Amino acid sequence: MPALYLSHGAPPLADDPVWPRELAAWSRELPRPRMILMISAHWEEAPLAIGATTTVPLVHDFWGFPERYYTVRYPAPGAPELAARVRALLHDPGTPLQDFPERGLDHGAYVPLVEMYPEADIPVLQISMPTLQPERLMHLGRALAPLRDEGALIIGSGFFTHNLRALSEPTTPAWSLEFDDWGEHALRAGEVDELLDFRHKAPAGNLAHPSTEHFAPLFVTLGATEEELANQRTPIDGFWHGLAKRSVQFG
Length: 251
Description:
The chain is α/β, with parallel strands linked by helices. The chain contains nine helices and ten strands.
C-alpha cells in the first residue's frame, strides 16, 4: 500500500463543492486497503496510545458549529488485528504503549474518511502522536512501515498550513501561499532535512504553523515511505478558507 499525508479539513468540509469530490476520486485511485491506520493532528498522547479496537462513538472535538455536525456517524469496524501488529512492531523497552479502548476517531480521522470511504466498511485504528519532534515521528513511521505490505493504508492527517488566528483576510494570506510553495518544492526534491527543520528553513514557517501538530503527521508518513519518496503524487492542492489543503501520496 502507499502511505498518505492529507489535509483533513474541518466538519464543514462536507459542504464544500469541490474538496469532498477530490477526496472521493483519490480513494477510487488507491488500492483498496484491508485496514487503515490513522495518525491525526488532534490526538497527542504520550506514551503512544492505541485507540478503540471496537466501534465506539466518534470524538466530536470541536465547538461552536451547527448541531448537524455533531450528529455525523462513521461506524467503521474496529481493527484489533492491526492494533496487535502495531504493538508487535513497537515492542521495545524504549517505546512504551498504552490503550484507550473508549477513544473513538476524532475529526482529523473521520472527516476525510467519510468522503473517501463512505461505506465505513474498512477497519480503522487510530493511534496518538507521542511527540511533535519530527525526527522521532519519522522513526515511528519507519517502525510502522511493514504494515504497508500487510494491506494497511497509513494516513498522516493534518493540514499543510494551519493558523486560524491569522486568517483575517478574505483572500489567501501570503504566509500560506509562501509556505505551500516551499513545501511543494521540498517534497518533490525529497529534501527531508529541510522538511525536518521547517520552522527555520521554510518562509513564514512560524506563521504557517504557530504550533506544529498539523504538520507533524507528515513525518510519520515520510518515515513509512522514505525509500520511495521519489514515487509521489499530489492528488489535492489549492486552498480552503486560506489554508493550504495540499495532500500527498507516497509509494
